[in-house]
Write a sequence for this structure.
């Protein structure tokens, strides 16, 4: 890919009025553009990152036996009224009338929609268990969307819903999904801690959150560094410095956290309230048991920016970077740079070339570090052939001279 074909547009200064560090970094790197508070355009570079996050999440969902579907963003009031959540979520749900005068809302979540769909099709114990997921845009009328892409009014989310006949099956899949989530975050190089939290407006039972402990997080987490005890402040009965309730010998610590995922057990809540039932082996009509599992895709994008940057710009992990390698050159070395670029592309390397003819090498390097390409190949007077490449690793800042073949073999 060439810069001129990929709409790569960076900014030297942070945008005025943007308080969030992740938004400042992503806007300057030409990955997002702010339309209004809590609403962003995802430009080609940013969308490429999002698609890589989605690909990892989708792969793990499919491996876990879930099938993908796509539900609408526009929802009728009638299904949300069945369990009272049209009123309960009224403060954060965009609600309005369409041209026919009917009340509709933009999806803040999709439990009601998927239950309405499932109750038309799940009839027997033979139809269970069932797991369905989607990756889709959600809308929430946040009061103060000031955390960049971490807390938007419009955002992309993966939500999985699992349907079960028995409590044992529900709990087994719930625990299985905990492990799947940990594998997703490990692949994305996002360190998380599983934290107990309240069910909020979604369920009366506690839920589990996947929190990234960082000073810029909005949540307060109490946790033990010696064991797996961790609770959100909203339900915590401990204080910093107290002995761990698990009697492991550790002392409770406090930290801020970014919630990048959550999972809920609804049990028979929706089966009872929305008449989602099945007929068991003894011909009894029973409520279907339900769980939901969410991962914030765009929130992960913002979290990766918060965790991976320095004074020069982003340092995104290779697994999510838009391209592995950028080729930059002196203005009079564009032909040599193009030859190296074509050779890398032929070998299957995800490479982009900064082919802007009137931009100095220094400016190209500044832009490359701002965007955070994992590797820079600098084509200058001394190193301009496939037998002599100057390679700079963004994560470490180390420079090495090597052949193209050696470089490719190390990727």
């Amino acid at each position: 890919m060439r810069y001129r074909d990929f709409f790569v547009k960076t900014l030297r200064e942070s945008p005025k009025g943007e308080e969030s560090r992740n938004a400042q970094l992503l806007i300057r790197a030409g990955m997002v553009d702010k339309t209004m508070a809590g609403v962003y355009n995802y430009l080609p570079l940013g969308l490429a990152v999002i698609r890589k996050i989605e690909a990892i999440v989708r792969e793990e969902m499919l491996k876990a036996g879930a099938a993908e579907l796509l539900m609408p963003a526009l929802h009728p009031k009638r299904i949300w009224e069945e369990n009272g959540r049209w009123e309960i979520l009224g403060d954060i749900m965009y609600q309005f009338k369409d041209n026919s005068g009917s009340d509709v809302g933009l999806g803040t979540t999709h439990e009601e929609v998927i239950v309405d769909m499932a109750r038309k099709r799940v009839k027997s114990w033979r139809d269970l268990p069932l797991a369905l997921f989607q990756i889709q845009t959600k809308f929430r009328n946040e009061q103060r969307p000031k955390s960049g892409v971490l807390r938007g009014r419009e955002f992309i989310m993966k939500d999985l819903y699992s349907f079960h006949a028995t409590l044992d099956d529900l709990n087994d899949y719930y625990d299985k999904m905990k492990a799947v989530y940990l594998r997703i975050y490990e692949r994305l190089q996002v360190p998380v801690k599983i934290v107990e939290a309240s069910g909020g407006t979604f369920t009366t039972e506690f839920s589990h959150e996947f929190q990234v402990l960082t000073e810029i997080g909005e949540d307060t987490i109490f946790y033990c560094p010696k064991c797996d005890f961790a609770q959100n402040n909203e339900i915590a009965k401990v204080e910093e410095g107290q002995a761990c309730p698990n009697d492991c010998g550790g002392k409770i610590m406090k930290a801020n956290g970014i919630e990048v995922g959550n999972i809920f057990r609804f049990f028979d809540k929706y089966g009872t309230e929305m008449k989602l039932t099945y007929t068991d082996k003894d011909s009894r009509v029973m409520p279907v048991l339900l769980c939901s599992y969410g991962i914030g895709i765009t929130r992960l994008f913002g979290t990766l920016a918060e965790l991976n940057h320095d004074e020069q710009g982003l340092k995104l992990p290779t697994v999510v970077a838009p391209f592995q390698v950028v080729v930059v050159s002196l203005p009079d070395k564009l032909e040599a740079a193009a030859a190296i670029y074509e050779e890398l592309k032929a070998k299957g390397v995800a490479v982009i070339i900064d082919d802007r003819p009137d931009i100095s090498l220094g400016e190209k390097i500044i832009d490359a570090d701002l965007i955070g390409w994992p590797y820079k190949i600098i084509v200058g007077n001394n190193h301009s052939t496939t037998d002599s490449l100057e390679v700079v690793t963004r994560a470490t800042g180390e420079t090495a001279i090597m052949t193209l073949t050696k470089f490719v073999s190390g990727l």
Notes: The radius of gyration is 24 Å. The mean pLDDT is 94. The longest strand covers residues 253-267. The chain has two domains: 3-310, 323-409.
